[in-house]
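Q: I'm building a small set of examples for a reading group on sequence design. Run inverse folding on the following structure and report the sequence directly after it, with nothing in between.
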């Protein structure tokens, strides 16, 4: 690191101070929108488990397909339609029962719950599995964009008998050339996208910037490697059919996505690049469609 660059600790202190200031400024307009938010939520579907409340949508018919939207910790179900490389509900809703949800505490979403600092990934996986239990669904397929990649690997480790096939689309992963990247964008944002932490604190006064820092440190910096949630030995032993659609960008590094596809026992990988030119996207959607169809469980 060049001598004139700040250390991670000093940068983090700056982030915490700046984030607290942003939170204070944003608190007033957030309060003004509370009433309209409550009115909007009255027509939505929610799953509740203690102090966790998850907003979800359940559309289509057929074998269940859990869709995990991209957007990092601001993963909300509308991202599947508005900002994903392809609209999975439009493409697969006629053949599958598509279940999507707002991630717990995602800004712009309607799900909420505590920050579980000592098990951040598992707390979200609790929500995924809890929602499927709430809907009476035992086995299901899963397709996840961006942060959905690590969540899928966690689902495969925790519930291998329930997930029958998985599609991992442009997943986040650990990049040794940018080891702090996921922490930093969750605090500061990336490009036009705001950071998750300061906005969360602005609308949730019981959550502080030091709590956010501890949560993100545990999630993205402590023992960070590979796909964040599982190690290579687990991927080598995983027998679930997997299709990986890699990307090559700072949030979605190519190397861990391809390594996971090469290590897994029953994995496929799409052509690459598949998003550019855009004319390739329908081809990869056909690959996803044939993959899901090939791995539909046989129901007696």
């Amino acid at each position: 690191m060049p001598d004139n660059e700040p250390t991670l600790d000093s940068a983090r202190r700056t982030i915490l101070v700046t984030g607290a200031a942003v939170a204070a400024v944003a608190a007033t307009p957030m309060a003004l929108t509370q009433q309209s938010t409550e009115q909007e939520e009255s027509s939505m579907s929610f799953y509740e488990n203690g102090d966790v409340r998850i907003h979800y949508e359940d559309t289509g018919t057929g074998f269940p397909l859990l869709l995990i939207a991209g957007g990092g910790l601001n993963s909300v179900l509308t991202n599947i339609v508005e900002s994903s490389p392809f609209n999975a509900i439009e493409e697969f809703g006629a053949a599958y029962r598509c279940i999507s949800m707002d991630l717990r505490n995602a800004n712009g979403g309607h799900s909420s719950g505590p920050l579980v600092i000592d098990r951040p990934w598992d707390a979200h996986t609790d929500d995924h599995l809890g929602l499927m239990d709430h809907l009476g669904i035992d086995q299901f397929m899963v397709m996840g964009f961006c942060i959905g990649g690590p969540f899928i690997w966690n689902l495969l480790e925790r519930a291998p008998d329930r997930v029958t096939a998985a599609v991992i689309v442009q997943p986040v992963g650990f990049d040794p050339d940018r080891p702090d990247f996921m922490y930093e964008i969750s605090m500061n944002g990336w490009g036009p996208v705001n950071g998750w932490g300061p906005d969360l604190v602005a609308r949730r006064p019981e959550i502080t910037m030091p709590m956010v820092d501890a949560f993100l440190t545990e999630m993205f910096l402590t023992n960070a490697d590979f796909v964040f949630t599982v190690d290579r030995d687990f991927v080598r032993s995983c027998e679930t059919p997997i299709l990986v659609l890699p990307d090559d960008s700072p949030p979605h590094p190519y190397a861990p996505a391809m390594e996971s596809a090469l290590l897994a026992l029953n994995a496929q990988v799409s052509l690459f690049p598949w998003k550019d030119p855009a004319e390739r996207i329908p081809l990869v959607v056909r690959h996803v469609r044939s993959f899901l169809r090939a791995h539909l469980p046989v129901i007696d």
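The first strand starts at residue 45 and ends at 49.
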